[in-house]
Design goal:
Blueprint (H helix, E strand, L loop, with lengths): L1 E10 L4 E12 L4 E2 L9 H11 L9 E6 L1 H4 L2 H9 L8 E6 L10 H13 L3 E4 L9 H7 L5 E5 L9 H17 L3 E5 L4 H8 L5 E2 L8 E2 L11 E2 L1
Parallel strand pairs: 2-4, 4-5, 5-6, 6-7, 7-8, 8-9
Antiparallel strand pairs: 1-2, 1-9, 1-10, 2-3, 10-11
Organism: Pediococcus inopinatus
Protein name: EAL domain-containing protein
Pfam family, one: EAL
Length: 231
């Protein structure tokens, strides 16, 4: 069985949930696991699951974001399929997150740039996930900057090896770049009240983390709210 788990995204001011980042998980109602290979999922599978999931979500959770690895992101079929279901996901605003995971084969810049423009032209917001980690480094950010709406900085990617204080220079860099380039800036990895107080000083637009909301098994059409399971 394939289902979405969702971690709530919070606006910073006011601090309130506004949407979910969606994660694919495989399993049963009693046991779920991270898929070993996300590339095996087709655009149709993901889109059909979105159609089942979106209508069952709370009305205040207007924003949904789907993670795509780069090989999925550059495949025109994914964009075409998401365009085809926009009227079926209950007025939710769908964003596309390009993950930091590397491809098995190098992707030419012009292909990645064309894919990003394709999503923008189709009125999807494009999010660069985990900037400063994996392949989503400054070079890629500069390449795609004209077609990207949001940077996400994952504090948890630098833990436990570094303290929050040690991460501050990296965080400050990406925060300043987001402001300079007029991008939405999201901080992930808010895992304690201390984190929340410290990270709020950066006036990010959005916040995510365990202290705000852990991932939950999202319902689909036909489920009751009692079927929600917290991780």
């Amino acid at each position: 069985m394939l289902r979405f788990w969702g971690q709530p995204k919070f606006s910073r001011d006011p601090l309130e949930p506004v949407g979910y980042e969606l994660f694919l998980r495989e399993g049963s109602m009693t046991e779920w696991e991270v898929p070993s290979d996300f590339s095996k999922f087709t655009a149709s599978q993901i889109a059909n699951l979105l159609i089942q999931t979106a209508p069952a979500l709370p009305h205040n959770m207007k924003s949904l974001s789907v993670n795509l690895d780069i090989d999925q992101f550059i495949d025109p079929q994914f964009c075409q399929t998401f365009v085809s279901i926009q009227n079926e996901i209950s007025c939710r605003h769908l964003s596309i997150e390009l993950t930091e995971h590397p491809s098995d084969t190098p992707i030419p810049d012009q292909i990645l740039l064309a894919a990003t423009k394709r999503y923008t032209d189709a009125n999807f917001a494009v999010i660069l996930d985990d900037v400063g980690s994996g392949d989503n480094q400054l070079k890629r950010v500069k390449l795609l900057n004209n077609y990207v709406n949001e940077y996400k900085f994952a504090v948890q990617n630098f833990r436990p090896g570094e303290s929050l204080e040690a991460i501050v220079p990296k965080l400050s860099f990406w925060c300043d770049l987001a402001r300079t380039n007029n991008k939405v800036f999201t901080i992930e990895g808010v895992e304690s009240k201390k984190d929340l107080l410290t990270l709020s000083d950066y006036q990010a637009d959005m916040l995510q983390g365990y202290t705000l909301g852990r991932p939950v098994l999202l319902p689909i059409k036909g489920d009751s709210e009692k079927s929600l399971v917290h991780c």
